[in-house]
Amino acid sequence: MSWTDYASAPAPGTPICPESEVGTVHSVQVATPRGSFPLLIARTDAGLRAYANACPHQYLPLDSRGPQILSADGARLMCTAHGASFDIATGAALAGAPCGLDAVPVESVAGMIRIAAG
């Protein structure tokens, strides 16, 4: 499944949040005309990365059982429902899931993070 397959997938240019709100990981619901889209934004050494906030194991939000989804070493995102882990920089599955997180293209323009064109 790709992030664009979600019924509530936001269109390119949709504003998400001010970049100043993003520490290491930020969970946000993006309002669209078709509903709310669950998104995780991660600040990495390579820049901002974003993923649909849905573990590919059961499609529950990674933070469904609490906000602590970042590993102690800061290199992995972890599903609070069943412990699957994903590389923070790529979204690739590291353990406990059949595939990685769905990457969502984002960009920061004048301090506002928004959905980028593919």
Automatic annotation (TrEMBL):
GO MF: 2 iron, 2 sulfur cluster binding; metal ion binding
CDD domains (UniProt xref): Rieske
PROSITE patterns xrefs: RIESKE
Keywords: 2Fe-2S, Iron, Iron-sulfur, Metal-binding
Residue ranges annotated for the Rieske domain, each copy included: 14-115
SUPFAM superfamilies, per the entry: ISP domain (SSF50022)
InterPro entries given in the database record: Rieske_2Fe-2S, Rieske_2Fe-2S_sf
Claim: RNA-binding is one of the keywords in the record: no
Name of this chain's protein: (2Fe-2S)-binding protein
Organism: Paracoccus siganidrum
